[in-house]
């Protein structure tokens, strides 16, 4: 399969593959990851594909990737947070400012500075400066969904860094 053919497949079927992954996992971040894994697997094993129904082939790969993820030990240990819960937290104000003393806020700022880009700038703007996702997206010239994903991933990385410091 040539690079151009593969590129057309990604453009044509990425929304479908993402929808399949999201419906099976109910987690938009993991659906994005599984969509990428699906296309990586398709590219890697394209010589084993027989036929011309790429759509069905990609959906099958995506559903298998999702099934593997749902059976994984990682998924069994963690529970995805519903997007509605995240908006509810955001609407109430930044939890860091509600519960964190000045000393802890300094620790969080130091932890943010230890993050690699793009998480560092997103964490600083969203968690410490309390800028809304839309404003951060404009400032960093990225889509809002990308900023949301990076903020949630930065939060997970910050938790790890702050645990290590205790």
Topology of this structure?
Elements: H1 3-25, H2 28-44, H3 54-71, H4 73-77, H5 83-91, H6 95-99, H7 102-114, H8 119-128, H9 133-140, H10 144-165
Q: In short, what is this structure?
A:
With about 170 residues, the chain is an all-alpha fold. Helices cover about 80% and strands about 0% of the residues.
What name does CATH use for the topology of the largest domain? Answer: Arc Repressor Mutant, subunit A
- Rg, Å, rounded: 19 Å
**Mean pLDDT, as a whole number?**
80
Spans of at least 5 consecutive residues whose pLDDT stays below 50 are 88-93, 95-100
Strand content bin: under 5%
Count of domains: 2
Q: What about the largest sheet?
A: none
What order do the SSEs take from the amino end to the carboxyl end, as H and E?
Answer: HHHHHHHHHH
CATH class of the largest domain: Mainly Alpha
Key attributes of the depicted protein:
166 residues, mainly alpha, Rna Polymerase Sigma Factor, Chain: A, Arc Repressor Mutant, subunit A, 2 domains, 78% helix, elongated
Description:
The longest helix is centred in the first third of the chain and has 23 residues, at 3-25. The chain contains ten helices and no strands. Helix 8 (119-128) crosses helix 10 (144-165). Residues 88-93 and 95-100 have low confidence and may be disordered. The protein has two domains: 3-77, RNA polymerase sigma factor, region 2, helix turn helix motif (Rna Polymerase Sigma Factor, Chain: A, Orthogonal Bundle); 83-165, Orthogonal Bundle (Arc Repressor Mutant, subunit A), CATH 1.10.10. The protein has 166 residues and is mostly helical.
């Amino acid at each position: 399969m040539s690079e151009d053919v593969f590129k057309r497949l990604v453009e044509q079927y990425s929304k479908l593959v993402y929808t399949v992954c999201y419906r099976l996992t109910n987690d938009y971040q993991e659906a994005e990851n599984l969509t990428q894994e699906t296309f990586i697997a398709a590219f890697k094993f394209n010589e084993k594909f027989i036929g011309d129904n790429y759509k069905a082939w990609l959906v099958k790969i995506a559903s298998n990737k999702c099934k593997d993820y749902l059976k994984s030990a990682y998924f069994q240990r963690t529970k995805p947070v519903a997007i509605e819960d995240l908006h509810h937290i955001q609407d109430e104000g930044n939890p860091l400012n509600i519960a964190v003393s000045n000393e802890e806020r300094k620790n969080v700022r130091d932890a943010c500075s230890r993050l690699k880009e793009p998480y560092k700038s997103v964490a600083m703007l969203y968690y410490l400066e309390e800028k809304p996702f839309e404003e951060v997206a404009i400032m960093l010239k990225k889509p809002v969904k990308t900023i949301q994903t990076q903020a949630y991933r930065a939060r997970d990385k910050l938790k790890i860094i702050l645990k290590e410091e205790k």
